[in-house]
Write a structure and sequence with these properties.
39% helix, binds zinc ion, 4-stranded parallel beta sheet, 288 residues, alpha/beta, 7% strand
């Protein structure tokens, strides 16, 4: 399939009508324009999320890639030049509007692939709100770097202690896509963030040590834990590591598209007037 035809924005309305009728899954990249240290452009999250979606669509003809939702949630991250911050409620409503429009046009399965860590709570609310607003569709999302196959592919190659921001993983992935846009002479480690058993973050979920179970939900101002705008060690990045991570992410997204296509969309019942014994029999039948 030529690249033109996997891009939602490049199709005509009759083609999009046909795509909706054919049950195509729409994948929406969700990202940010955000400083990524002195060595990377500010479009890292946008470029990587979109790249994963494009590679997935090249693998699986049953999906289209939507125009990205380019901006993200950044109030903690304005200490360096370049970052664009959009209010949380605007982003959530914007995302629900995009999904609602797709639902209106007959698309029934929508997958949002996020590239920006601080979009996670926004993504979750978009998915939850759009789902209850449109019970006739299935909407889901995840951050590309959090996919299990990315951890499987990248962690064995990883040389830095953790990945967080403009780090070994993000720099490697950008090197795999566009090495000329990465200034590796400016890529230096920044481990300013004070990690402790419950204050840590890692893009692929790698635990710092045996005492660490799950990180607390917390977001101190980003510059309290980074001097250069980096968290991690981008100097360890190579294009080969990035290629492995992107390919793993694309494989998993392509598989998720099929999983979503196979998942029946059930009308939500209302049990206020239901017979309890009948519900128990139904539960037994469905559990068998
Ligand atoms: Zn990033």
């Amino acid at each position: 399939m030529a690249e033109r035809t996997i891009l939602y924005e490049r199709l005509t309305w009759p083609q999009l009508r046909e795509a909706a009728r054919a049950g195509q899954v729409v994948i929406i990249p969700f990202a940010s324009i955000e400083q990524h240290g002195p060595h990377l452009p500010v479009d890292v999250d946008l470029r990587l999320a979109r790249e994963v979606c494009l590679r997935a669509a090249q693998r699986n003809p049953n999906c289209l890639v939507m125009t990205p939702m380019a901006f993200g949630f950044e109030p903690h991250h304005m200490a360096w030049p370049g970052t664009i911050d959009v209010d949380w409620d605007v982003l959530i409503r914007y995302g629900v509007c995009v999904v609602s429009s797709l639902a209106h046009h007959g698309f029934r399965r929508i997958l949002i692939i996020n590239g920006h860590g601080s979009n996670r709570p926004i993504l979750e609310m978009i998915v939850r709100l759009a789902q209850v607003k449109h019970p006739e569709i299935l909407v889901a999302g995840q951050s590309w770097f959090a996919l299990g196959k990315v951890a499987e592919a990248f962690q064995p190659l990883q040389e830095s202690s953790h990945t967080s921001h403009a780090c070994e993983l993000e720099t490697a992935a950008y090197l795999a896509i566009d090495p000329d846009a990465v200034d590796m002479s400016q890529a230096v480690a920044d481990y300013s963030f004070r990690r402790s058993p419950h204050f840590w973050a890692d893009l692929t979920g790698k635990r710092p040590d045996a005492d660490s179970t799950v990180p607390l939900i917390a977001m101190e101002y980003f510059a309290t834990g980074s001097s250069t705008g980096v968290r991690g060690d981008p100097s360890k990045a190579t294009a080969e590591k990035g290629q492995a991570a992107l390919e793993a992410a694309a494989d998993e997204v392509a598989a998720i598209v099929e999983e979503m296509r196979a998942r029946a969309i059930l009308p939500p019942p209302d049990h206020h007037d239901a017979d309890v014994e009948a519900l128990k029999r139904q539960a037994a039948a469905r559990s068998a």
